[in-house]
Amino acid sequence: MYDLSVITDAIHSFLSGFMPAWLTVTVECVLIGVGLLLAYSLLALFYIYYERKFCAAIQCRLGPNRVGPWGLLQSFADMFKILIKELISLNHVDKFLFALAPYLVILASMLAFAVLPWGNGLQIIDFNIGIFFLLAVSSIGVLGILLAGWSSNNKFTLIGAMRSGAQMVSYELSIGLSVITMVCFAGTMNVGEIVAEQQDCWFIFKGHVPAIIAFVIYMIAGTAETNRGPFDLPEAESELTAGYHTEYSGIHFGFFYLAEYLNLFIVAGVASLLFFGGWMPLHIPGWTAFNHIMDFIPSVVWFIGKAIALSGIIIWFKWTFPRLRIDQVLAMEWKYLLPIGLFNLVLMTCVIVFGWHF
Amino acid sequence: MIALDIFGISNNGLLAITAALTGIGLVALALWLAGLISPKSFNAQKGEAYECGIPTRGESMAQFKVGYYLFAILFLMFDVETVFLFPWAVRVREMGVGGLVSIAVFFGVLVLGLVYAWRKGALEWK
Lengths: 358, 126
Known about the structure:
heterodimer; A: mainly alpha; 15 helices; 0% strand; globular; B: mainly alpha; Methane Monooxygenase Hydroxylase, Chain G, domain 1; 63% helix; flat
């Protein structure tokens, strides 16, 4: 298995060769920041292209195909277009909160983004309570959306923000419960250790029934958490124009768009971390030769590949199911997913305590 | 073989601050760039709320449906429960049957609360 910390260690020893320690740390932090920024924006651009091509395939269309080969440069063109749009200053909004909201939304997704295990030796924030930190920072995003809706002083945005707030906090419970189920199984909250636990076999195979139930709950709740798919009623175009970001223009709107796509990646990334081994290659106990071949595929490719495949499922939801009503959304969480999640946690405890797993 | 600590920085707080500053920097940078290259023109109509084309009647930051508030209270109950469950979840393997019994009692109380809210009709959208 390639260990990417060889690269970072080489940079570290090169830098510390001619710099004092404090300057080395500063330069490295700047390097990490630039890397994060690049990964964040390139992934967002890729996701916009990916979703458009995916939905085009589902609807028997071609999708973007004019800008660059196979339309690959389309999202770059879109980004440039959104940058040259005017930032309209409105005279009825709460100026400070209106400007603050995009910062909170991007901050939440950037912090969650930095916790993900990118590859062997390529994990940025590695708290011993990593998963808990991830849940905590990702709930800042709700605050940003509520602020955006409230400060816009518009009825559409207010209704959109309230719907979004109710939906996101409700489905956070189900996400939390399925994460706790897997933390029980792993016995640790540290992201690196959770990945290491899955070296012989991924959790979805190891934890059999409760892990599969937790995975299904996680995927449904994750779709709702990103305000997508059948749960996109906070920004239901036909009733609320654009929901909570109706009043935002130009790049201000772009931030919400960016964060939405990155949240899609983060939800899929956490699913791949908890159920499909993070960056860990597919290992089957006993198949030594097979495991060895799998080790040749770099860990970064494994992680990004899993995350993109899982987000493909979420995009598939979006273009398959009709939109739910707000009462249906809340009933689904509180009357179905939450009781099932609680039962599943007890089931997982039984599986662990009585040793019904491999 | 599991490598930790990117660049050998073991201070995770520093890395979290770096990530937070990167997020803030991304927004600030993009706003600055957009401010440089985007056109600016004034029109009194542009400052209006994006509603129906006519001026908004009444106050938009108004009182709102109480149904959302009920769900927020219920959420608080279960979210605090989640916080309590995390330390238990890490240790459950060592606690054995004791862990199972303690979580059964904890969930018994919790489910009682959910059933109460359900029977009272707090989960119905009216």
